[in-house]
Amino acid sequence: MNIINLIVSCSSFLFLVLLVGCGPVLNPYNEDFKCRAKDDAGECIDTPTAYQKARYPKTEAAVIPDPAETAQKELQENRYKIVSELLKEETKPLLQPPKILRVLLLPYKGEDEELFMSRYVYLKIEDSQWVLTDLEEQ
Questions:
Q1: Residue 61 scores a pLDDT above 90
Q2: Per-residue pLDDT tens for 10-24?
Q3: Residue 126 forms beta bridges with which residues?
Q4: pTM of the predicted model, to two decimals?
Q5: Contact 48, 61 (CB under 8 A)
Q6: Which residues fall within 8 angstroms of residue 15, CB to CB, at 6 or more apart?
Q7: C-alpha angle with apex 109: 108 to 113, nearest 5 degrees?
Q8: Distances in Å between the alpha carbon of 97 and those of 31, 56, 91, 130?
Q9: Contact, 107 vs 115, CB < 8 A?
Q10: What is the Cα–Cα distance from 55 to 59, expressed in whole angstroms?
């Protein structure tokens, strides 16, 4: 009977500890966090918002620019800049490269039971031509 009483008391004690385990008995930290920062010491915001404000300081925290879209706009602006500089130089001709088409040939059997594996064939669709010149005027 002594052992049964000991087991019952131990189990009730463990049950009590598990019941109160997340409470103030075992957790010494205050869970009611309130920001106490002064006005000149910063602001109380969550981590994702703080990261967005640090990463994109001039934009709103909720608006994050798409990196792919930003890169595409920069590329387009660089192209416009290059073309506008070329247009300003009247004496510099420009050669447009030929248009090449890459065609994939899938594997096939030949007439004499040869096996032709997949490969690429390159075809010139359009020849190169001079642009930004006055050749048409002569």
A1: no
A2: 888 777 666 665 555
A3: 99
A4: 0.31
A5: no
A6: none
A7: 165
A8: 68, 40, 19, 9
A9: yes
A10: 9
